[in-house]
């Protein structure tokens, strides 16, 4: 890039408008239509919209406070969001990536539940050493990276749905019982205490150097992004206290929080990160891993059951005692072995695509990291 004088900015310099979204309670839920965005993803589709141009949607409250996504117009955004309309002279993807470097979750305003306001956003100050032309050129590069990530996520969704179909065929309903369990009822066992998997306890082994810290905000559905915080063993917050293990499947404890991450036999991330205590992890065997992965990742029954058992006065979540009330089917060894042989290649492909996405996101951060000078 050519030399350019450092210039002071406020976030408000990039936006023509900043406003909160509106409640979704009166909208019809359709299979197709205009996207209705929540604080971290598309909630559903409807026949109503609020915004006629693409914009940047930021989660403003709760666990997803500070999450950032692009709303594709025309769209509706829920009242848990702030919608930023970017001035036409700026590349939308550049501004989104710029916001991602600011770690908005840490800028929340509120004494109780995390809260981000439009006023806080408008007054964030920083310096950039780049021209408008360079900003927009960089935005085009970032857009290409995000396009690749989106394509990978689409393939991940297709593979996950394929696993869901296979799981249902093998383990749901009387047909499955007759075909794969000799007509007998599947044995029911408690989720955290059985021969298929065991609950991973809190605590990590001492390590040298730095690791990425994954709070639940780094994981969205079945995908994840590079952590924004590096920790050492001695210099970490108390919640950074869960260690990934080979052949383990993890999920967010909080109610209405679908966040899953897993580590197979050759996981790219396993030795690079530490997880938050906001996750619960199940350590599996070689034979049971594909089955437990399917149960957590590709079966909406699990999240519904988890949410129904979650307790708490403000932010409800499930604890170890609550998990013991979740009963799962325990197929016979022969069925598990055959199921693993069929499904494991799909899971391996999903992990590889997630790994590629993590590298693409890291490249995006590298492109952006030197731009903010203070």
Number of domains: 2
What's the pLDDT, averaged over the residues? 88
Low-confidence stretches: none
Q: What fraction of residues sit in β-strands?
A: 15-25%
- Kindly, what is the distance between the CA atoms of the first and last residues, rounded to a whole number of angstroms? 19 Å
Helix content: 25-40%
What is the fold named in CATH at topology level of the largest domain? Adenine-n6-DNA-methyltransferase TaqI, Chain A, domain 2
CATH evolutionary superfamily of the largest domain: DNA methylase specificity domains
User: What is the CATH C-level name of the largest domain?
Assistant: Alpha Beta
Would you mind describing this structure in some detail?
The model has no long low-confidence stretch (mean pLDDT 88). The protein is an alpha+beta fold and 374 residues long. The strands form seven sheets. The chain has a four-stranded antiparallel β-sheet with strand order 2-8-5-6, with helices on one face. It is globular and about 70 Å long. A hairpin with an 8-residue loop joins strand 5 and strand 6. The chain starts with 6 loop residues before the first strand and ends in a 5-residue tail after the last helix. It has two domains: 7-129, DNA methylase specificity domains (Adenine-n6-DNA-methyltransferase TaqI, Chain A, domain 2); 147-365, Adenine-n6-DNA-methyltransferase TaqI, Chain A, domain 2 (Alpha-Beta Complex), CATH 3.90.220.20. The chain is built from eight helices and 21 strands.
